[in-house]
Write a structure and sequence with these properties.
Blueprint lengths: L8 E5 L5 H6 L7 E13 L9 H5 L5 E4 L4 E8 L2 E9 H10 L13 H13 L4 H6 L11 E8 L13 E5 L3
Parallel strand pairs: 1-7
Antiparallel strand pairs: 2-5, 2-6, 3-4, 4-5
């Protein structure tokens, strides 16, 4: 049975680069750098010899958060010998690691040489004091793969409530 609903305001935001937000609220759509970066890696054993404990972690169904002194690691088991790593660190750490690799702190990940990418990820992973995670990086066949990327975490400040208490409003997606 077809139906329709009328709303006073519909926000269907699509994240930090929301077209809806830029169109409807351009004054509040500027990005804010939160001072934090993350390297995302998808590590797959694919029947290859995996370090001790890797397959158990990758197939466990249990996410982990590991706090180091310079990095925070998040592990998301994906099953079938695949483990997603998120390696978070602040901009001061990024500047130091990029500098140690002979790069400027604003060098984009795509321009970081392969050997430096591996060294940066290994240094951050070693901070977790978990040798199995550092060994798991040996499973990465291509440091230029789309399965490995770096992003600077940016977002926008929350919108002031753009509607009255009595309005008929629906918020979808990231807006919710």
């Amino acid at each position: 049975v077809p139906f329709s609903i009328v709303f006073d305001l519909l926000i269907a935001a699509d994240g930090v680069n929301s077209v809806a937000r830029r169109t409807l609220f351009p004054a509040s759509a500027s990005l804010v750098d939160r001072g934090f970066s993350c390297i995302y890696l998808l590590v797959e054993a694919e029947g290859r010899h995996a370090p001790p404990g890797f397959l158990e972690r990758a197939n466990s169904g249990r996410s982990e958060l590991i706090m180091g002194s310079i990095a925070t690691l998040t592990l998301f088991p994906l099953g079938r010998g695949r483990l997603a790593f998120g390696i978070g660190f602040d901009h001061a750490v990024r500047a130091r690691l990029w500098s140690d690799a002979g790069l400027t702190p604003d060098t984009p990940w795509a321009e970081v040489p392969v050997i430096a990418k591996a060294a940066i990820a290994r240094r951050l992973t070693q901070d977790a004091s978990d040798p199995a995670l550092a060994q798991a990086l040996d499973l990465v066949p291509d440091w230029n793969s789309y399965k490995i990327y770096h992003w600077i975490m940016r977002d926008t400040d929350p919108l002031a409530r753009p509607y009255p208490d009595t309005g008929n409003v629906i918020i979808l997606g990231d807006a919710a």
